[in-house]
Write a structure and sequence with these properties.
Elements lengths: L1 E6 L2 E6 L2 E5 L9 E3 L5 E3 L16 E3 L11 H6 L5 E5 H7 L4 E4 L4 E4 L7 E7 L8 H4 L3 E7 L5 E5 L7 H9 L2 E7 L17 H11 L3 E5 L10 H10 L3 H4 L11 E2 L6
Helix pairs in contact: 4-5, 5-6
């Protein structure tokens, strides 16, 4: 498997001939975007790969469509050209695209293409905030991507989530090769100490439960609403047990990384 860090949550995954784009965000930095209940965030870093340089995209996984740090204007613009767009059921309705399919946690869709193994993509649970916050923050899902006929998960994308029992249960139950783990510790002055995504310490705890072959940190920088951010993620990794540290791969900006090769 080869992964390319594009910025924020946006990662290009390539394996078995498939090209899968995760949460496309390609707007330039500097703009402030409104979120729910009067909150907002400014994008502080642009993408490390341009849309024009992406090439063919077979599948776009959109964990949620209603926050610009996971799907911005430029990201929306590339969706019609993808063969498949997979997101939440409410998001698929809002996108209203013929290639969009919505899933609830636990539901699956199979994608096929000539000359490639079929993939089964299953939505996994997320909670983008504290208990009872779903009405405010909306639906979010993660994605477990399997080759047809295989029990193990080739790629798990956690999506934006706090660390909570359903996510921990998924980590205990899944057998994962590569995990893309979103962190950042999202918070806003308006909502005080409440967090809307995992901190670095939370992400390390989840990886320790999951035991993937490779865990890739994502969505920890590039926006003003990350209160834990890259510093928190790196500090948590530095303090993690060796059995966790040896699984974690930091992706270079915009450079494809072959995860079958040992880290340099």
């Amino acid at each position: 498997m080869r992964l390319t860090r594009i910025g924020g949550p946006t990662v290009l995954a390539e394996f078995d001939g498939w090209r899968i784009l995760i949460d496309p965000t390609f707007d330039p930095p500097g703009r402030r975007y409104a979120f729910a209940a009067g909150t907002s965030s400014t994008k502080t870093r642009g993408p490390f790969v341009r849309v024009a340089d992406l090439g063919r995209i077979d599948i776009v996984l959109v964990s949620h469509d209603h926050h610009a740090d996971n799907l911005d204007d430029a990201g929306r613009g590339l969706l019609p050209a993808a063969h498949h767009v997979i997101t939440t059921t409410s998001g698929a309705k809002r996108l209203n695209l013929p290639n969009a399919r919505g899933l609830r946690p636990g539901e699956s869709v199979t994608t096929d293409a000539a000359g490639r193994p079929s993939l089964v993509i299953t939505a996994t649970p997320c909670r983008h905030g504290p208990p009872l916050s779903r009405a405010l923050v909306g639906d979010v899902i993660g994605f477990a991507v399997r080759r047809t006929g295989e029990e193990g998960v080739a790629l798990w994308v956690t999506g934006d989530s706090v660390l909570y029992p359903a996510l921990q249960r998924a980590a205990r139950e899944l057998q994962v090769d590569v995990a893309v783990v979103n962190a950042g510790g999202v918070g806003f002055p308006l909502t005080g100490p409440v967090r809307y995504s995992m901190t670095g310490a939370d992400a390390v705890s989840l990886i320790d439960t999951l035991h993937p072959r490779v865990a890739v940190p994502a969505h920890y920088d590039g926006w003003s609403h990350f209160l834990d951010g890259e510093a928190g993620m790196r500090a948590a990794v530095a303090g993690a047990p060796q059995t966790v540290r040896e699984r974690i791969r930091w992706l270079a900006d915009g450079i494809p990384t072959d995860l079958s090769e040992p880290a340099s």
